[in-house]
Amino acid sequence: MSLTEQLGILEADRLPGSLVPDDGSLPQQIAAVIRHRIIHDEIKPGKPIRERQLAEELQVSRTPLRDALKILALEKLVEHIPNKGAVVIDHSPDDISDMLLVYIELDGLGGRLACRVGTEADFLRVERQIHRMESATRDNDRIAYFRANQAFHLAIVAASRSSCTIEFHANLNLRLHRVRYLSILKNHQWMDRSDDHSKLLSALRARDAAAYSEIQQRHFSVAWHLVDAWTNRAPEGE
C-alpha cells in the first residue's frame, strides 16, 4: 500500500504531540505512518525499522525516510544505535512510571487553567468526547473508547490556552500511547471511573479548580493501576 493510501486510512486516528511542526512535508507524512505503527504495537519496542523494506512499501526514497526517523527520534519514539540503525525505544517500567507521573501533573495543570480561561465552546468539545465514550461503552468497543478518552483529555488541556502545557502534555500522550492503549485492551477494568468524565466537565463549567483536581487525581489512580499492571506483567510465555 502506498504512502498516500496509508495516510488516508490514518487520518481519523491522527494524534497531536510531535515536537516538530507538521508542515505536510514528505518526511512528516512518512513519520505519521511509522508513528502509527509504533504506538499501535505493529512495530514492537526494541525492534529495528527496516529502512529498505519500508521505503519499497511506501514507494519513497531512503532520504525522506531517514528524515522521518529523525523526527521520531526527537519524539523519543525511536533511537539510532550504531551498526543497527533506527530502533523503536523500549522504555523500562521506571521510565513509563516517570512519564505517567509528569503526564498526570500536566493534565491536572491544564484542567485547572481551563477552569479559569476555558469557554463554553471549549467545554462543548469536551462534552462531545464524553458522548463518544458513552457510545463506545454501550457497544463494548474498547478501541473507540480509548480514542475518545484520549481526545477528551487533549480537549481539556487545549482549553487551558497554555502553549507549553499543551505541547508537553501532547508529546507525553504520544509517548505513552502504546502502553496505555495495550493496558486498556488487555484489562477488564477499562471502564472503571468512566463516570468521572462528567464530574470533571461539571467542575470545569463551575470554574472549580479545587474540585477538578480532586476528581482528576482519583480518576488517574485507575489509569496508573492499569498501566502499572501492564508494564510489570510477566513476559509472554511465562
TrEMBL record:
Residues 24-91 form the HTH gntR-type domain. One of its GO terms (molecular function) is DNA binding. Keywords: DNA-binding, Transcription, Transcription regulation. InterPro entries: GntR_C, TF_FadR/GntR_C, Tscrpt_reg_HTH_GntR, WH-like_DNA-bd_sf, WH_DNA-bd_sf. PROSITE patterns: HTH_GNTR (PS50949). The keyword ATP-binding does not apply. Pfam families: FCD (PF07729), GntR (PF00392). The keyword Transcription regulation applies. Gene3D superfamilies: GntR ligand-binding domain-like (1.20.120.530), Winged helix-like DNA-binding domain superfamily/Winged helix DNA-binding domain (1.10.10.10). PANTHER family: TRANSCRIPTIONAL REGULATOR, GNTR FAMILY (PTHR43537), TRANSCRIPTIONAL REGULATORY PROTEIN (PTHR43537:SF50). This is FCD domain-containing protein. It comes from Algicella marina. The lineage of its organism: Bacteria, Pseudomonadati, Pseudomonadota, Alphaproteobacteria, Rhodobacterales.
